[in-house]
Specification:
heterodimer, A: 111 residues, mainly beta, seven-stranded mixed beta sheet, four-stranded antiparallel beta sheet, 11 strands, globular, B: 115 residues
C-alpha cells in the first residue's frame, strides 16, 4: 500500500535555528498538507498546498513558516527561526478525493 | 467554522468491556466523518469513515454511524482488547469553499485497556 514518508523521524534543534522537515507524498495525490500536534493536544491544520501553491493556511502558519515542492516529489516545511513553542509532532499528509494518507510524523524538539 | 468535540478522557476499561467514545460536530455543508487512531509513538491511522447521513463505518470491530439529526459520530466497540489502547481522534473533512479537503480534529480521547 502506498505510503507518505517523512524524514527525519526526530529532530532536535536550538532555538533560533532553521529546520526543514521533509515529506514524500503519494505520487498520484494532488493535495498536500502539514498538520501539527503539540504534545497531549489536538491535531491542528497548518497549511494546504495544491497546484504548486498554498491554498489555505492557518493563523499558526506565520511568516516563519514556508512550504515548497521543489522537485515534484518532495514536499517540505521550513521553519526559519524556531521557537520553543514550535516543539511538536509535525504530520505531512496527501489526499486524493477524501482519502487522506498521513506520514508517521517528525517529532521536532526545540531546546 | 467547523468544529469537532469529543468526550473528555482518559477512558480506562477492562478487557472485553463495551466502549463508547462520543463525538459531535458543527459544520457547513455535508462533511465526511472519520475516526483516526494513534498508537503510542506512531502516526495517525484511519480507523473508519462515513461519507453521508446514516452511513455506518466499521473496521476491526469498531463502528460509528453518521447521525445528521444529532450531528454525532460516536465510536463503539463491543469488546475491547489491550491492543486497542491508543488515542482516538474524531475528525471531519471540509466540503466547501477554500477549506475544501481540510481536516478538523477533535481533541482526542486516550483509551487504556487493562487485562
Amino acid at each position: 500500500e502506498p505510503e507518505v514518508t517523512q524524514t527525519p523521524s526526530h529532530q532536535v534543534t536550538q532555538m533560533g535555528q532553521e529546520v526543514i522537515l521533509r515529506c514524500v507524498p503519494i505520487s498520484n495525490h494532488l493535495y498536500f498538507y502539514w498538520y501539527r500536534q503539540i504534545l497531549g493536544q489536538k491535531v491542528e491544520f497548518l497549511v494546504s498546498f495544491y497546484n504548486n501553491e498554498i491554498s489555505e493556511k492557518s493563523e499558526i502558519f506565520d511568516d516563519q513558516f514556508s512550504v515548497e515542492r521543489p522537485d515534484g516529489s518532495n514536499f517540505t516545511l521550513k521553519i526559519r527561526s524556531t521557537k520553543l513553542e514550535d516543539s511538536a509532532m509535525y504530520f505531512c499528509a496527501s489526499r486524493l478525493g477524501d482519502g487522506y494518507t498521513f506520514g508517521s510524523g517528525t517529532r521536532l524538539t526545540v531546546v | 467554522g467547523n468544529s469537532v468535540t469529543q468526550m473528555e478522557g482518559p477512558v480506562t476499561l477492562s478487557e472485553e468491556a463495551f466502549l463508547t467514545i462520543n463525538c459531535t460536530y458543527t459544520a457547513t455543508g455535508y462533511p465526511s466523518l472519520f475516526w483516526y487512531v494513534q498508537y503510542p509513538g506512531e502516526g495517525l491511522q484511519l480507523l473508519l469513515k462515513a461519507t453521508k447521513a446514516d452511513d455506518k463505518g466499521s473496521n476491526k470491530g469498531f463502528e460509528a454511524t453518521y447521525r445528521k439529526e444529532t450531528t454525532s459520530f460516536h465510536l463503539e466497540k463491543g469488546s475491547v482488547q489491550v491492543s486497542d489502547s491508543a488515542v482516538y481522534f474524531c475528525a471531519l473533512i471540509s466540503t466547501g469553499g477554500t477549506s475544501y479537503g481540510k481536516l478538523t480534529f477533535g481533541q482526542g480521547t486516550i483509551l487504556t485497556v487493562h487485562p
